């Protein structure tokens, strides 16, 4: 079977686009729910903010790995 | 092998036929050695900009804490005031809230980690220096290995070798059959993925941030490097160049926030790992 579809050019940038989908959704959910939690219980702001930032960092790392991978493993 | 900066290879001007954007790549993170030595085993040792900056960062942290705490007074004055504000932040938010019992003895580790990482990140936006040391992978890797051995050591010390590794590998869950899936996952996530992501997160954030700043700085220069300064192409150049310059400014402000956040997250995760290793059941 011959080649059905071929991708040329900067494949790494497409990879970053794909890698950013999941974390994008995740970070949206984290901050959306975080703001909601603060609105419901403003006195727990400190704890909520800390956990919000933690969740943000964990989700964001995945997108950044997608950003860096083409530079590290690229030719 | 080292490549020259893409900017130095550009001979054409914007508006010429066939003058592509000199997109900066990973080569902007490699520096020629300032000095090189021959090591004791005959290998070549090189001393370059990131190493110099890391040394300066360590010196800044040492001088700051010496100025703040070398001769503590009952009534704090000058630098001691600032130092105590930082100390109490770490004491309340990390040692007491997260680690809890016996957390106070980890304040020196957490404080030095935070300040060292933050100063190294901050070099990214210092004019004339403009290089985040942590965007070279060796620095976050070593810091994360320090954290790795610290939390394993804490776990072994507070629970004993057997109890600690058993607690990690075989958590107290029902039904027990789920351990077939859970045990490999727990071992993988605690002992391999955890230190790796700790290092990669810091590295990737600083790498991406520095690259973005360089891309917009280069495009500011590239779009203003015009063949002729009148005509339709020059308008594109002026507008694009100004937009890129503004983007550089905005991203610099954003980077300041990210640098502080990453240093904070690194310290926060360190505290959480220590807390988890300390408690028998998590």
Number of strands of chain A: 0
Using the CA coordinates, give the radius of gyration of chain A. 18 Å
Helix-strand topology string of chain A = HH
Beta content of chain A comes to under 5%
Helix content of chain A: over 70%
Number of helices of chain B: 8
Compute the average pLDDT of chain B: 87
Q: Whole-Å distance between the termini of chain A?
A: 28 Å
Which protein chains make the most extensive interface, counting residues with beta carbons within 8 Å of the other chain's beta carbons? Answer: A-B, 14 and 19 residues
Assign the CATH superfamily of the domain at 22-73 in chain A. Answer: F1F0 ATP synthase subunit C
> What is the rounded Rg of chain B?
24 Å
**Helix content percent band of chain B:** 55-70%
Main β-sheet of chain A: number of strands, strand sense, barrel status?
none
Q: Spans of chain B of 5+ residues with little confidence (pLDDT < 50)?
A: none
State the shape of chain B.
Answer: globular
How would you summarize what this structure contains?
By secondary structure, chain A is mainly α. Chain A is built from two helices and no strands. Chain B is mainly alpha-helical and 282 residues long.
Describe the protein in words.
The complex is a heterodimer of chains A (75) and B (282). With 75 residues, chain A is mostly helical. Chain A has a domain of 52 residues: F1F0 ATP synthase subunit C (F1FO ATP Synthase, Up-down Bundle), CATH 1.20.20. Helices cover 79% and strands 0% of the residues of chain A. Chain A has two helices and no strands. In chain A, helix 1 runs antiparallel to helix 2. With 282 residues, chain B is an all-alpha fold.
Helix and strand layout, with pairings?
The complex is a heterodimer of chains A (75) and B (282).
Chain A: H1 11-40, H2 45-73
Helix pairs in contact in A: 1-2
Chain B: H1 6-9, E1 35-38, E2 44-47, H2 49-69, H3 79-99, H4 107-122, H5 138-159, H6 161-169, H7 179-224, H8 232-278
Antiparallel strand pairs in B: 1-2
Helix pairs in contact in B: 2-3, 2-4, 3-8, 4-8, 5-6, 5-7, 5-8, 7-8
């Amino acid at each position: 079977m011959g080649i059905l579809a071929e991708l040329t050019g900067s494949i790494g940038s497409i990879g970053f686009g794909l890698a950013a989908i999941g974390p994008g959704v995740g970070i949206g959910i984290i901050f959306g729910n975080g703001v909601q939690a603060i609105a419901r219980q403003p006195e727990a702001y400190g704890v909520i903010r800390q956990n919000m930032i933690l969740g943000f960092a964990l989700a964001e790392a995945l997108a950044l790995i997608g950003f860096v991978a083409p530079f590290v493993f690229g030719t | 092998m080292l490549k020259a900066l893409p900017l130095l290879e550009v001979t054409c001007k914007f508006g010429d036929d066939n003058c592509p954007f000199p997109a900066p790549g990973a080569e902007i993170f490699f520096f020629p050695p300032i000095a090189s030595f021959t090591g004791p085993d005959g290998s070549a040792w090189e001393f370059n900009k990131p190493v110099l900056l890391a040394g300066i960062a360590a010196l800044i942290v040492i001088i700051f804490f010496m100025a703040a705490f070398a001769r503590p007074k009952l009534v704090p004055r000058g630098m001691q005031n600032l130092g105590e504000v930082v100390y109490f932040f770490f004491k309340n938010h990390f040692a007491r809230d997260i680690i809890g019992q016996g957390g106070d003895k980890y304040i020196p580790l957490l404080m030095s980690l935070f300040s060292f990482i933050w100063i190294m990140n901050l070099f990214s936006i210092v004019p004339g220096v403009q290089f985040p040391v942590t965007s070279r992978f060796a620095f976050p890797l070593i810091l994360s290995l320090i954290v790795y051995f610290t939390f394993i050591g804490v776990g072994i010390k507070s629970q004993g070798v057997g109890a600690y590794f058993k607690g990690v590998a075989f958590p107290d869950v029902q039904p027990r059959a789920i351990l077939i899936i859970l045990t490999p996952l727990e071992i993988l996530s605690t002992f391999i993925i955890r230190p790796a992501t700790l290092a990669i997160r810091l590295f990737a954030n600083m790498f991406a941030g520095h690259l973005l700043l360089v891309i917009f700085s280069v495009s500011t220069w590239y779009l203003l490097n015009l063949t002729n300064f009148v005509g339709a192409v020059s308008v594109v150049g002026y507008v694009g160049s100004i937009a890129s310059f503004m983007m550089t400014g905005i991203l610099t402000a954003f980077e300041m926030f990210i640098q502080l956040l990453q240093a904070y997250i690194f310290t926060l995760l360190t505290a959480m790992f220590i807390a988890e290793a300390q408690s028998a059941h998590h």
